[in-house]
Amino acid sequence: MRNRKWLVKARKSVWRFLGWCFLLGCCTLIYAKLIEPNWIEVNSLQLTLPHLSSEFNGYRIVQISDIHRDRWMTPQRLGRVVRLVNQQKPDLVAITGDLITRHSPKLIASLGFPLAQLTPKDQTVAVLGNHDHDNNTKAIIQVLVQSGIYPLINDVYTLQRGSAMLHIAGVDDVGMGKDRLDLVIQQLPNEGGVILLAHEPDFANTSAATERFDLQLSGHSHGGQMRLPFFKPLVLPPWGEQYYWGKYQVGNMLLYTNRGLGMTGLHLRLFARPEITVFTLVAPNS
C-alpha cells in the first residue's frame, strides 16, 4: 500500500515537472520568436586608438551589421533601425556586411529607400558579406551607391580634418575568398589611424598581423543567435568561431564583433539581442 502511494506521488511529481518544463519551453519560444528579435540594444563604447589624431578625438562611428533583408526584416523594421542609428548623431555609419539574406535578389531594390535615410555628418560606408555574394552583388553595390553609401570593396575611404587623416578601409568577403588585403594596404598612407571593416571577425588574426590597423569592425556571427548564458554558442559560422561577440584585443589591434540585426535559419534569438554599436573614438593623451 505504501509503495502504491509512493508510486502515485512520484508519477504526479513527474507530470508536474514535465508540465513546468513544457510551460517554460513555450515561454522561451515566444520570447525568442517575438520579443528578443525586436529588442535592439544600443551599445556605447569609448575606444582609444593609438594612431588617432587629436582632430578626431570624440569622433562617433555607429556600426550596424547583418541586416539580412528577408520576409522578417521588412523595410518597416529596417526603417526603425535607421531612425535609431540617426538618433545617435553619428559622424560616420559603418555597415559590416550581409545586407540581404542569400538567394533573395528580388528584395535588393527594397534596401535603397531605408538606407538612403541614414544621416551621418560625413559618410556611410559598407562592406559585403557572404550572404550578399549569394545574390547579385552588382545590384547590391548599385543600390548602395544610389543610396549615398560608399562601398568598400577592397578599398579605403579617407576622412580629413585639416591635415589630419582617419582611414576607413574595407575588405570584400573573406569566407567567399573575395578579400584582397594587399590592395587595401597598398592604398594606405603612412599617416593617420586606420579602421578596417571585415565581415568575418576571425579575419582579425590576419589583419592584426600586418600591424597596420588600430581597430577592426566585424559582424557575421550574430553572437551565436541562440545561446545559453555564460556558455559559448553551440553553433557558430566559419570565420566567426573565435571572436564571436564584443570587444577583443588581437595583437596590437582592437576588434569589435557586432551581433547584427537580422537572423538566419529559424529566425529566433535567445540571449543574443540585436545590436547597434556606437563608438566614440579617443586620441591617446587626450
TrEMBL record:
Chain ranges of the Calcineurin-like phosphoesterase domain: 60-223
UniProt name for this protein: Serine/threonine protein phosphatase
Species annotation: Nostoc minutum NIES-26
Gene Ontology biological-process entries: lipid A biosynthetic process
PANTHER family the UniProt entry points to: PHOSPHODIESTERASE YAEI (PTHR31302:SF31), TRANSMEMBRANE PROTEIN WITH METALLOPHOSPHOESTERASE DOMAIN-RELATED (PTHR31302)
UniProt entry keywords in alphabetical sequence: Hydrolase, Metal-binding
MF term (GO), any: metal ion binding
Lineage: Bacteria, Bacillati, Cyanobacteriota, Cyanophyceae, Nostocales
The organism's place on the tree of life at top rank: Bacteria
Gene Ontology CC terms, in alphabetical order: membrane
